[in-house]
Design a protein that fits this description.
2 domains; Endonuclease Iii, domain 2; 234 residues; disordered N terminus; Endonuclease III, domain 1
Length: 234
């Protein structure tokens, strides 16, 4: 989560949040996240237990740009630590992770940084799509949830999970649900004391009761997962 500069006052941040809420009512702010979390907790005792024990979840906001999508791609099907390590190697190789910089590096150089052949290709092809105008992330940010997801998924390597994590963290949409997220499955199994980890369909069925704040419920469950001592190493 990007840190705000210490020279930015709380008043300025509150003003930004009010302006965001006025122009983008489905985009979460710190204030609306807290409000939605309290609302969910009042209706769901399990989520209420998390808030009582650990407090409200972080916003976990990321910039709505190419390097955020790169990081999410690197986090696919690996631990957070592994994804962060791969992203840091890429960061050390170039001043800025932009489509132009990645295209200049080339897919071979990306693989030399320890990226898998598949993920190097995904990152390179995403850079090419943005550079030639096939994907416009500013336009994506103005789309509805379904259209934004479908547009992102036209790029190789971006499936439902990657697209929804981008909508959740970068666009801060309030009602997207990251399908097949392993941490959510583990958190829900532990929190609700389920005998087995829920399937993807089972997880989605649970999430239906949290509409229109499924992204808030996801943050609460991640907060629980990351705050639990057994998971702190991840």
């Amino acid at each position: 989560m990007p840190a705000y500069s210490s020279v930015v006052s709380k008043t300025d941040l509150d003003l930004v949040e009010r302006q965001t809420l006025a122009t983008e009512p489905n985009r979460l702010t710190r204030a609306t996240l807290r409000e939605a979390a309290v609302r969910l907790a009042s209706d769901d005792p399990d989520l209420g237990l998390v808030l009582n024990r650990y407090g409200p979840p972080p916003l976990w906001a990321r910039p709505a740009r190419y390097d955020t999508l790169v990081r999410i791609i690197l986090e696919q099907q690996v631990s957070l630590a592994s994804g962060r390590s791969a992203f840091n190697r890429l960061t050390r190789c170039t001043d800025r992770i932009t489509p132009a910089h990645v295209l200049r590096l080339g897919s071979d150089r990306l693989r030399n940084l320890g990226l898998t052949r598949q993920k190097a290709r995904y990152i390179f092809e995403l850079a090419a799509a943005i550079s030639d105008g096939s994907i416009d992330l500013r336009r994506v940010s103005r789309m509805g949830d379904d259209e934004a997801q479908e547009t992102l998924m036209t790029v190789p390597g971006i499936g439902p999970w990657t697209a929804n994590i981008y909508l959740l963290m970068a666009l801060r949409r309030r009602d997207v649900w990251p399908r097949a997220d392993l941490a959510l499955r583990k958190a829900l199994q532990d929190l609700c004391q389920l005998p087995n980890s829920p399937s993807d369909k089972g997880l989605q069925k649970f999430a239906e009761k949290w509409r229109p704040y499924r992204a808030v419920a996801a943050r609460i469950l991640w907060h629980y997962y990351l705050s639990s001592p057994r998971n702190c190493r991840h």
